[in-house]
Amino acid sequence: MYAVYSLKHAPGLCSALTVTTTAHAQTPDTATTAPYLLAGAPTFDLSISQFREDFNSQNPSLPLNEFRAIDSSPDKANLTRAASKINENLYASTALERGTLKIKSIQITWLPIQGPEQKAAKAKAQAYMAAVIRTLTPLMTKTQSQKKLQSLLTAGKNKRYYTETEGALRYVVADN
């Protein structure tokens, strides 16, 4: 599994937490496609509907709406992409294995805002990101997932991207 998290405090930039399955090899012809999105790459043993149901039951104060398919580019043959709007500056998106709709990648994207609501919006984005980590790592407590998220943010601060592998999870932090 992979997780991507980026957090930036400037307006117009976005932040995301993506969790995907592990695929290590990458050949030169697939350099533009993330290895975990390739045909045959592993998936979570979890459909997007199951994930959403688990997420919502574990996090009643952080509702995740139904995902809707979005038209996507060259990887249509292998993937179905879907998104769910949480609010005006917070979205969830996913890359699903075509046919089974099992999760290859799931992401929370935050579009930072300025002004008096910035602190609350950032806290909400981080709460959703920690909840995604927790939902996919059931033995992790709320406090542990928040600490993990903060650790990733600190390690990835001011870096194009930072990766960290923990068991079957791979976290990628992009601060751009």
From TrEMBL:
Residues 1-25 form the signal peptide. This is YiiQ family protein. Keywords: Signal. It comes from Escherichia coli. InterPro entries: DUF1454.
